[in-house]
């Protein structure tokens, strides 16, 4: 087979394969590339030596059976025979579910997670959104310190395990998205600098030198990232990618990497006949992220909406630290603004940033499904000191209100694993660094970070302690007992209602109408012929909804957390404490 590697500054490159080493030759047609032919089959270990240095893994390795520090292995993509015919599934009308393979089950493998996919299909989920699965040090971690952007973490089951998982998901009608990290790699196990200018000091990021998207050599670096993204979608039949922290991509070129990526993914979708989606994480509050390329945007298909999360979180918890400060002064007003305008920060002053932030979304031209709405994510739980979920502090009634606001709102809803039954297990920050110095630096850094906010260091879970990961695994006995069983049934009812009612999937943000009372802590909004109301206070609320659309009364109750009557002809809804209702006009 043919081996190749990009090493533009090397004087020589050697290929080690099947226990022997041979020199590679420069590719006359591609500057900086080296090639060699050698006998090798599926599973054969190999690596490259640059200028007589140590044997290093292939930057485009498809498999790292011994982890990111070991040699690469040949992987034959044809060894998996796909069982499920799959036409694909796009984002309009979707309900996403963020899943971490390593803690979704105690086993922490693709096969164990696949065995639990029936739970999601029954719930009404349409897409599983996997957290990163590229190789990273040790066995357990979040995955954002991954390297080898073309390979799959071996303890999860490697590339074969991922294909079995995707095949099982498609067999149940579930699409699969994958979180990929292009803004940084490693640091442990990151050997890319030994091969070429994959990073540049032209820009700096919180993780050090930036990935080289615009300095000399960046054409090949972009090709590396583009090739990786397309390989996930093509070779693993994934339905889309979630792009981590795109605001951290330092890119000054006229044609940005994200535009190149969206164009390449759209072309692959046309070629395969399957809808393929790119979902960005971005804190820029910039509608150009999801604006089509033809209209001057980046052309990504959706983006996470942190403004919706932050306003919802402050309304539920009253927290006001950090970035929540911008939303805490009037959280229900902030929430009402996001469900009608997408962004809270649309050219407004941000006290957290000390400057104005964001720009308005044209709600008459931008479909609401391009924004992903959620109450919890891996970041918003795991980056808390103790990894506590909302269920640790909210009553079942407030959890029910949370579900209504996420699942009947205008955005593409997303749940974090276990949220659907009010899981009480924490989800904490955990690592398994094999480098003792790095492990100690991570441990001490986390303790210092939260110690500066008043936490005692001994209260902060040790990321390197295996028990920290173990305590983050879902407890699958919870859904069988109360109050979890009732919460689970409520989520299932709401998702079914979303699927049955076109008004709840209407992408027109301009038609969403809201009313709220900051003091009495209630919020109501209209979506077509449906009206949704939540009472977040500990007291009964009287909410003036007005008559039905045809003024013949208050309509009928479609779903309610506690027993509640429809409004009378006076249009007044009497809602119990910490409760919610969905009404249909007569």
Produce a short descriptive summary.
With 586 residues, this protein is of the alpha/beta class. Helix content is 25%, strand content 20%. Strand 10, helix 4 (158-171) and strand 11 (175-180) form a beta-alpha-beta unit.
Under the CATH scheme, which architecture of the largest domain would be assigned? Alpha-Beta Barrel
Bulk shape: elongated
Rg calculated over all Cα atoms:
25 Å
Helix amount, in percent?
10-25%
CATH topology of the largest domain: TIM Barrel
Describe this structure as you would to a colleague.
By secondary structure, this protein is an alpha/beta fold. It has three domains: 2-56, Sandwich (Immunoglobulin-like), CATH 2.60.40.10; 96-500, Glycosidases (TIM Barrel), CATH 3.20.20.80; 507-584, Immunoglobulin-like (Sandwich), CATH 2.60.40.1180. It is built from 14 helices and 27 strands. The strands form seven sheets. It has an eight-stranded parallel barrel with strand order 9-10-11-14-15-16-19-20, surrounded by four helices. Strands 2, 3, 6, 7 and 8 form a five-stranded antiparallel sheet that branches. It has a five-stranded antiparallel sheet with strand order 21-22-23-27-25, with helices on one face. A hairpin with a 4-residue loop joins β21 and β22. α5 packs parallel to α6 and α11 (396-407) runs parallel beside α14 (484-500). It is elongated. The termini are far apart. The model has no long low-confidence stretch (mean pLDDT 95).
Which structural traits does this protein have?
586 residues; alpha/beta; Immunoglobulin-like; TIM Barrel; 3 domains; eight-stranded parallel barrel; five-stranded antiparallel β-sheet; elongated
